[in-house]
Amino acid sequence: xxxxxxSKSSLSRRDWLMQALGLLSVAAAPSLSFAAETAHxxxxxxxxxxxxxxxxxxxxxxxxxxxxxxxxxxxxxxYGSSEVLNQHASMDELNVSYDALRNTYGxxxxxxxxxxxxxVARTVNTAGRQKIAYDRLVxxxxxxxxxxxxxxxxxxxxxxxxxxxxxxxDQTALLARQLQGMRRGxxxxxxxxxxxxxxxxxxxxxxxxxxxxxxxxxxxxKVIIVDPKDSFVTDQTMMLGWNRLYNFNLPTDYVEKMQxxxxxxxxxxxxxxxxxxxxxxxxxxxxxxxxxxxxxxAETIKADVINVIPPMRAGQVAMxxxxxxxxxxxxxxxxxxASTLQPNVHVIGDACIADxxxxxxxxxxxxxxxxxxxIVEELAGRSAPEPLWxxxxxxxxxxxxxxxxxxxxxxVDGKIARINTKQRYLPLNATPAQIKLGARYQQAxxxxxxxxxxx
Length: 455
Prior knowledge:
4-stranded parallel beta sheet
């Protein structure tokens, strides 16, 4: 993407913030006139949403006091974490420091766990017996995995035998060891989650990357995706990649939808990779960790490595603070992401109900910028502007086979709706050069996105 050659000296502070920091969802940076008394904004959760909110609050108004409460002193990024499994990245490369946010912007960090709050008094309590006062509270708690939704599965089983790794950390490292040490000709099963879930293309990218890795290091291995769904985001472009790279034969209904736009090859024999959809009995019912079996509606599969990505809901702290409804997620005002259940609280990221917006890091980053702007405007006695959001999810069907989904959102009839109706995905007739460039964009995005959130 081309960029104009503009120097900071030729721009006002407001214009420079818009152009150099990529505030695509912000129409114009607010003025910086505030009352003498400085407001204190407390942010619970130091992931993409929380870190971006903290940074942009300080960019919009450096005089604000901003405190982030986060239980972990180092952020482990989930986006790109599947690349640990195929040895394209190390666990250390997932670690992101908070030093730049602290040292460059003067953001205060409290490494502790939130245990409750007093919404009227506007104070947050922590496990370390701290009581922190706030003027506005932003909660970005991410997701929690509902291990117990499958018979025989639990967090203990995930930590020791059948990892999920959807929240990166020790389970990611365990899964990498299991996959890289899997016996010759072994079977790897991925249990995809029901919607809604974090990173819609992610389970299918994970399957593709491991198929590519096995084709070089364990060429008689099998990769099986069992899925409660019949489709997924980027399914046509992802499966076209599988078709070209791994001799995967697309389901007949997909071939019918895609023919006329692109050649879909029909391969003889079987592919290393298979996808069992919900209509074919792909929904997971039970995990037998001792015997390494996974039971679906259609069959019981004996595996060597099982990766379960269970259903999800808002992170535990959102439930502790009374921010969730019966769906397990957090209802919010679409314009400002203010909680509809608690006063003076905003909820962003994977935990919130954002209608058509997916649960992705890019969404959380955009929501954070809109919320930072809304808080600054409201503290100054002005109305928040009409928001506009975007999301781009990059994914890989192979190391050099990149694809994406890109969308723009606005409020329509009280809900967040997608307003781009054409060309959301990499074109099915994309050239080999465009496909390879998509993979390069994905790798560049990992770096630039992290910088936008954390530095």
